[in-house]
Amino acid sequence: MSVPARRRRLLALTLPALAGLLAGFIAVLTAPPATAAAALTVAQAISGQSGTGTVTGYVVGEPTATNTVRFSAFTGDTAIALADSRTETTTSRMLYVQVTSAYRSSFGLLANPSLLGRPVTVTGTLTAYFTHPGLKSPTAMTLGTSATGSPTATVSPTASSGAGAYYAAAAGKSGASLKAALHTIITTGDTAISYDAVWNALKVTDQDPANASNVILLYSGVSRAKTLNGGATGDWNREHVWPQSHGDFGTATGPGTDLHHLRPEDVTVNARRGNLDFDAGGSAVSGVSGNYADADSWEPRNAVKGDVARMILYMAVRYEGDDSFPDLEANNTTGNGARPYVGKLSTLLAWHTQDPPDSFEKNRNQVIYSSYQRNRNPFIDHPEYAASIFG
Ligand SMILES: [Ca+2]
Ligand SMILES: [Ca+2]
């Protein structure tokens, strides 16, 4: 189709002008900030330990010695470990960053445990720290991936990640409308991990605060080496507190891999608990002090009664049948078998009150949120929600 001559002349005049404008816009949009150099990866910073450099990596823990990094229960604000993977647990793939006084209130892990799993960009001297590849004397630290030259330009890490903002849409609600609001909150922007990835995740979420080489087993409370994960007698494995068979969701990515109800447990104890519902009473279970069982229910030790209750309540709110999995619910029955229910709700609510969230459980919730699933267990953050929805 031919273009009239008049319009051809107009196009000839305007097209180059438009192209010039567009090029200008693109140049503005893509130009790097004047102060930013290309940031190094953590692997590059580890292999190039000289001069000054800017590095971007995920905060994975608090280094305390050459080969020791705390992944939870942080003890100070003076050092952080960065890695290229936010789930890194191998110290040789980490860069140890000195956090000097100007940056401690914003970048210390004791003050800001929610930094875990978040990207940080830091400029400073690439040199050994704790006799380990490091970065010292920082001149700029920022949350995110772009550097600035001034410590005063740092972003407060708590401003955008506070639990208050997370639950804003639940404010003022109760009962079924609170449950619906929480379901939306904890399923919006969340991510799921594979069943295989659960092994390493549990080594972080359930690390013994007193021994970074061990995990704490849920029902027994025993501290056992992380390296003993497996299926043999004496190993620990992945206990589904909400049994897989109650709804038959298996270990496909979803409820079967949801860290909020997965815990390390001794292989034999895990098998003994099987798919029992929860309720008080029964006979003492041998080898697991404080736990009781009968034909259709299991009573965990006192220190984790509330943990168990909050895990079940989380699952009931998280899984509502609007995805490819069944609608999981807590009910007042024991012996639920394969039905998508876990009881006994009245006992679980009593345990929830009797054993409120402690620092281990709160830290675990935070680590799952910041490092793995991007969602939280509302009943750990807001214990009062339980009675409003299930009472
Ligand atoms: Ca507890
Ligand atoms: Ca449900």
Q: Can you put this structure into words, describing what you see?
A:
The chain is of the alpha+beta class and 391 residues long. It folds into 2 domains: 42-153, Beta Barrel (OB fold (Dihydrolipoamide Acetyltransferase, E2P)), CATH 2.40.50.200; 163-390, no CATH class. It has helices at 5-30, 42-47, 104-107, 163-166, 175-187, 195-205, 267-273, 305-318, 345-354, 359-373, 378-381, 385-390, and strands spanning 52-65, 68-70, 79-83, 94-98, 119-126, 134-143, 207-208, 211-216, 223-225, 236-240, 262-266, 277-278, 283-284, 292-293, 297-299, 329-330, 341-342. The strands form 5 sheets. A 5-stranded mixed beta barrel has the order 1-3-4-6-5. A 4-stranded mixed beta sheet has the order 12-15-14-13, with no helix packed on it. A 3-stranded antiparallel beta sheet has the order 7-8-9. The relative contact order is 0.10. The structure holds calcium ion (CA) (2 copies). One calcium ion is lined by residues 316, 319-320, 327-329. Residues 1-36 form the signal peptide. Keywords: Hydrolase, Nuclease, Signal. This is Ribonuclease.
